[in-house]
């Protein structure tokens, strides 16, 4: 969902305080704080992208493509592109996931949604759903790990979230249309992905970067990597980074902070939590042993 004016960082336009929380190659995450009273009239805007809207708190009263909605926590709205919306007197906090047009087309093609009762119907532009525990969990993880999560971790979580929501729209598990590749091609793809992750683990790798290097779609790579290795791309990268950190901790000249950043972590807090979870010891305790 876009506002009447484009926003970058934190901006206030009319009754909406908009703040961009995260920007990736194929999506952005925003937080909207809405406070619209009867005296202030209606907030209006135009949506120009595929997006998901979650209500954190309060009650959101809105007209999407002339369809009225009363939304609160436990709801997600799936929105297609090109329609006007109007906010009615309301007070709510929402998170909004806006996706690029290229991502939307690729997703529709990858999962065979060209004949979907929702996605293929030009007269259905929005759909309100109750969330599942899995959707709530993924949304919570995304919103609460934004500051310390790596690019690849966020991309993998967002891909999972979109898939869970669309499976709820379709009321069925999604299956990729891509024909099962021959074994040699599958192995070559995984070999390329592993080489990329192991040689560039200290960089801020995105899922789009990794998939582009392997010449496959992000959806296909995410599924294939998990299927062949038992790890998601993010889990694999995290394990590589922690293993590198364990080696660096053997060098007394390096501080724990040095080890943290040299291993590809973007914050000491994220490194400390991940290291403790894997080794059941802090980095300092590990070094002493």
The major sheet is characterized as: 10 strands, antiparallel
**Structural class by helix and strand composition:** alpha+beta
Annotation, overall tally of beta strands: 10
- What is the overall silhouette? globular
Q: How many H/I helices?
A: 10
**Using only CA atoms, what is the Rg?**
21 Å
Task: Explain the overall architecture.
The N and C termini lie far apart (52 Å). This protein is α+β, with helices and mostly antiparallel strands and 289 residues long. A hairpin with a 3-residue loop joins strand 2 and strand 3. The longest helix is centred in the middle third of the chain and has 20 residues, at 151-170. It is built from ten helices and ten strands. Helices cover 42% and strands 25% of the residues. Strands 1, 2, 3, 4, 5, 6, 7, 8, 9 and 10 form a ten-stranded antiparallel sheet that branches.
């Amino acid at each position: 969902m876009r506002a009447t004016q484009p926003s970058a960082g934190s901006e206030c336009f009319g009754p909406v305080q908009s703040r961009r929380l995260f920007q990736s190659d194929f999506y952005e995450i925003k937080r909207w704080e809405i406070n619209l009273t009867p005296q202030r009239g209606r907030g209006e805007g135009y949506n120009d992208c595929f997006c998901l809207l979650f209500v954190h708190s309060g009650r959101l009263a809105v007209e999407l493509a002339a369809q009225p909605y009363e939304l609160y926590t436990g709801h997600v709205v799936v929105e297609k592109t090109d329609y006007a919306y109007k906010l009615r007197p309301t007070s709510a906090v929402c998170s909004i996931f806006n996706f690029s047009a290229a991502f939307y087309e690729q997703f529709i093609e990858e999962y065979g949604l060209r004949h979907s009762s929702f996605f293929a119907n030009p007269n259905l532009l929005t759909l309100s759903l109750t969330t599942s525990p899995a959707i709530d969990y993924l949304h919570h993880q995304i919103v609460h790990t934004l500051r310390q999560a790596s690019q690849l971790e966020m991309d993998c979580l967002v891909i999972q979230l979109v898939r869970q929501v669309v499976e709820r729209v379709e009321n069925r598990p999604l299956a990729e249309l891509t024909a099962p590749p021959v074994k040699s091609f599958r192995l070559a793809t995984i070999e390329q992905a592993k080489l990329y992750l192991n040689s560039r683990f200290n960089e801020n790798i995105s899922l789009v970067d990794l998939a582009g290097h392997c010449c496959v779609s992000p959806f296909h790579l995410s599924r294939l990597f998990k299927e062949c290795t038992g790890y998601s791309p993010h889990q694999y990268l995290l394990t590589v980074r922690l293993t590198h950190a364990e080696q660096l901790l053997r060098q007394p000249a390096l501080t724990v902070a040095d080890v943290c950043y040299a291993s590809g972590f973007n914050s000491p807090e994220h490194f400390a939590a991940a290291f403790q979870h894997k080794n059941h010891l802090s980095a300092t305790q590990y070094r002493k042993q």
